[in-house]
Amino acid sequence: MLKSLRMVTDPLLDKNPVTVHILGICSALAVTTSVATALTLSLALMAVLAVSAGIISLIRRHIPSSIRIIVQITIIASLVIVADQLLQAFAYEMSQRLSVFVSLIATNCIVLGRTEAFALHNRPVPSMLDALGNGAGYSLVLLVVAAIRELFGAGTLLGYGVLPLVADGGWYQPMRLMLLAPSAFIILGLLVWAVRSLRPVQQEAREFSPYAPERQVQP
Amino acid sequence: MAEPRSSGPWRRFLARPNTDRVKTVGVALLVAVACGLSVSTAAVLLRPLIEANVAAERQALMSAMLAGLPGIGPILEEAGADAVEQVVVDLDAGAIAGGIDPAGFDQAAIAADPQTSTALSRAEDLAGIGRRENFAQAYMVRRDGELALVVLPVYGNGYQSTIRAYLALEADLATVAAFTVYEQGETPGLGSRITEPAWQAQWAGKSVSRDGEVVIEVVRGTADGPYEVDGISGASVTGYAVTDMLHFWLGPRGFGPWLDRLRMGGA
Questions:
Q1: Is A31 buried (19+), middle (13-18) or exposed (0-12) by CB count in 10 A?
Q2: Which of B1, B18, B46 sits opposite A64 (nearest CB)?
Q3: How far apart are CA A92 and CA A86, in angstroms?
Q4: What ipTM describes this predicted complex?
Q5: Strand partners, B156
Q6: What does the domain layout of chain B look like in residue ranges?
C-alpha cells in the first residue's frame, strides 16, 4: 500500500518529469498562459498517459521488441485523437484555446517515456499508478507556472480578478512579458533551480569541465 | 487481450516467441485495427456534437459581429434576431432564389452535388475551391425598409486550410462594415492571427471596390488608403488567400451579379 502511494507521490517532487528529467517542456511553455488551459491539458495528458500505460502493460508480453516503439506510439496517438475529439465535443471553447497542443500530447516525451521505461516491464495496476503520478507531477509544474504567468500577466487566477488592473481603475500594471513564451522559460528555470537547491540530491554531476588552455607566460 | 482456455489458433499465435515474424506482423496488424476502430468509432459518435458546437460558435460570432456594428446593433436590439433576413442567392442569375427555403438550406450539400454546382476553370478559381455551388446563403439587415447591411459568407483555400469568413458590407455595397473569420486552420501564431480582433478591426471602413471593380487587397507591410489592409508578417500566403477569396466572391462568379442588381435597386 505504502509502495503504491510512493509510486504516485514520488514523481510530484523527487522524480518530477519536468523539473528533474526536463521532459514535456514545449507544451509546458505553450499552454501555461492561463490556469484554465494548463488544467485542461494536464487532465487530458493524465488520462491519455494512464490509459495508454494500462493498455501497453496489459499486452506487454506480446509486444515484439523490434516494433515496440511504433506499437506504443500507435496506441498513444489513437488515445490522443479520442481525447481531442472528446474535448471538441464537450468543451469546444477550451479545445479552440488549446488549438494544436492537445494533438501534440502524442509527441510529449513524458507519455512515451513512461510507457517505454515502466509500463513495458510492469503489471497494469502499478503502471497506471506510475502514469498517474507522473501525470500529476507534470500537472503540478504546469499549474505552478500557469498560476504565476496568469497572476502577473493578466492579474487574474482561473479568470477571476485577483490584482486590480490599472485599466479598471486599480493599481496593478500587468506584465505583458508573462504572457509570452520567454517568461515560461525563465519561470521554469527558476523553478528547477529552487527545487534543486531544496533537494541537493537532484543536482547532477558535471559531465565535463570547461575547456581552459594553460596560460602562455611571456618569457 | 482475452486468452481462450482451449489451445486454438489464437493461443498458438500468442505462444509464438516475440522475435517470430508472424507474431510481429500479427501484433502490428491487431494493434492497428484496434486503434483504427477506436478512433473511427469516437469520430463517428462525437461528430454530431462537434458539428453542433461549430454551428453554435458560428452563430455566436455572427451575432457578436452584427451587434458590434455601429448603426446595426440598435436595430437588432429593437427587432431581435428577426431583423436579420436570411436569403438564398442564385449566383448565376444574380437574384434571390425564390423556390428555396433559407431555413432548411444546406450549402455544403449543394456544393458537393455536381447537379447544383459549377466547375471553375483555373483562371476563374481565385478562391481555390474547384467547384462552386450555384446557390449560396447571404444575410440582409433592413432599416425602415431600406437595406442597411449585407453579410456575405465567403470561403477559400488558405495556406493549409479552408478559411471561412463573413464579409459585412454597408448599404453602398462597397464599404466594409466588418470582416470576421469563423473557421480556419492556418499556422498557429502566424496565419491564424487573422482571427484576432485587432487584425479584423482594421477592415471596418475599407472599401472593396472602386468604380465597380473589386480592388480590396491584403498588402505586405503597411496599408495605404481605403483599398488596402495590413498583412500579417510571416503569413503572406494567408493574406493572398484572403485577397483572392474576396475577389472571387465579390466577382462575376460569386455574389457580383447579385450585388450589381442590389445596387440598381432591385433584389
A1: buried
A2: B18
A3: 9
A4: 0.78
A5: B163
A6: 9-46, 68-263
Rounded to whole angstroms, how far apart are CA atoms A206 and B16? 46
**pLDDT per residue over A51-107, tens digit each?**
999 999 999 988 998 999 999 999 999 999 999 999 999 988 888 888 778 888 888
Mention every residue, 6+ apart, whose C-beta is less than 8 A from residue B65. B151, B166, B168, B178, B180
Please answer whether residues A7 and A114 qualify as being in contact, where contact means their C-beta atoms are separated by less than 8 angstroms: no
Give the best residue of A29, A65, A67 to mutate against chain B (max B CB count within 10 A). Answer: A67
What 3-state DSSP class applies to B24? Answer: helix
Question: Helix A124-154 crosses helix A181-198 at what angle (to 10 degrees)?
Answer: 120
Model pLDDT for residues A153-199, shown as the tens digit of each residue: 888 888 788 888 877 777 888 888 888 888 888 999 999 899 888 88
Q: Point out the residue among B14, B24, B39 whose CB comes nearest to the CB of A81.
A: B39
Query: B31, A58: Cβ pair inside 8 Å?
Result: no
Of B215 and A164, more confident? B215
B112 grid coordinates: 458537393
Q: Do A86 and B46 touch (CB under 8 A)?
A: yes
- The Cα–Cα gap between A29 and A25 comes to 6
Task: Indicate yes or no: CB of A89 within 8 angstroms of CB of B1.
Answer: no
**Residue-wise pLDDT tens digits, B224-239:** 888 999 998 888 999 9
Q: Taking CA atoms, what residue in B is nearest to A181?
A: B189
* Chains A–B, number of C-beta pairs less than 8 Å apart: 69
Partner-chain contact A66 B19, CB within 8 Å: yes
Q: Which residues of B touch A67 (CB under 8 A)?
A: 24, 27-28
Cross-chain Cβ contact A71/B19 below 8 Å: no
Hey, is the C-beta of A190 within 8 angstroms of any chain B C-beta? no
At residue A43, what is the residue type? L
**Cα gap B267→B255, rounded to integer Å:** 12
Q: Are the C-beta atoms of residues A46 and A135 closer than 8 Å to each other?
A: yes
